[in-house]
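Our preliminary data section would be incomplete without showing what the modeling component actually yields. Below, a chain of 304 amino acids is followed by its predicted structure, encoded as C-alpha cells that our downstream tools consume directly.
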Amino acid sequence: MKRLSVVVALGVFAALLTDTGTALAAPPVEPVQALRKQFVAGRGVLVSETSRTTVKASKETYTSRTTGTIAFGKPGVVGYDLTEKVKITPKNRATLSADELETMRTPLRAVNVGRYTYVQGFEWGPMPEGTSWIRFGKSATWQWYGQRGEQRVDVLSPARLKFVISKATSFHSGEYRGTLRTEDLYAERGPMNPEKLKISFRLFVDRNGLPVRLVTRYTETEQEFRPKGKTVTRTYDSVVDTRYHRWNAKVKVVAPPEAEVVDFGDLPINQSRWGEESLKLNSAGPLEKCANLVPCRLPFRIPN
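Predicted structure:
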C-alpha cells in the first residue's frame, strides 16, 4: 500500500483459494475482446480490494481495504479514484504510538487524471496553508508502473490481459491459474517499472468474458530506510484480492481544485532536503515516525 502493502498467512491464503467467487463456465466471449468493448468515455468499473502483507521475520500482518472507480475512454483506462483504509489490529494498538495509529487511521485517497495522480492522506511533512492534496507525475511518480491500489498485475489493459491469460497453466469454470514475472508483463519502459517479482495469479471471468476477480500472491525483499542512514532488509509475503464489478457503470473522475493542490517537489520538506537519499521516508511520514512494525516503503520514485 502506500503505507503498507498486504499480507496473509498460508491459512488465510488457502481460504482465498477455496473461494471461487463469481467464476462461471468458460466464457463464450474472448476476454480481450470483451474488455475492449468497455472502453467508452464516461463509463468504467467499480473496484473493491483486500490486501494483506505479512512481515516474515515478525509474522506481523497488515491489512488494507481499497474501494473506488476506474474510468475508461477510447484509449483504455483514463483515470481512477481509489480510497484505501488500513485495518488496525490489537497488536498495532499495543505497540504503536498515538501519532502512528492516527496516521494509519487516515484514509489514503488517490485520484489519477492523465499524467498526474493526486494523493490525499499521505503525510510528508507540513503542507502549504489551504492545501490537502499532493500531486505526483512531475517531480516524482506515484506507485509502480501499471499499479492501481495494491494490485501489481494490470488486467485492464488488453495487451496485459492477453499476456496474463497466456501464462495460465489451467482454465476451469471461468478461472485462469498461472504464474508470471513482472518484468515480462511490463516489458515496455515506464516511469517506475515494478521490481522483478514472480507472481502467482487466479483470474476469474464472467460469462461475458470480463474479469470479475483477480487474486495474486508474491514474495518480495526490500531495504527499509531508518533514521541516520540505517537500513533494514525485510521479506514480505503479500496477497491481493481485487474484485471488479458493475462493468459499464457511469464513472466520472475529476482532479481536485488547483488551489488545494501542491506538487510533491514543492513541499517544504523537499525544498530543504532534496535528493533521493534524503527523501527515503516512510509513506506514513518522515523517517523519524517509522515504527519497527510499520514497513517504511516508498510508494513513489524521484527521477534521477
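The first strand starts at residue 43 and ends at 55. Residues 1-25, 273-298, 300-304 have pLDDT under 50 and may be disordered. Preliminary results of this kind motivate Aim 1 of the renewal.
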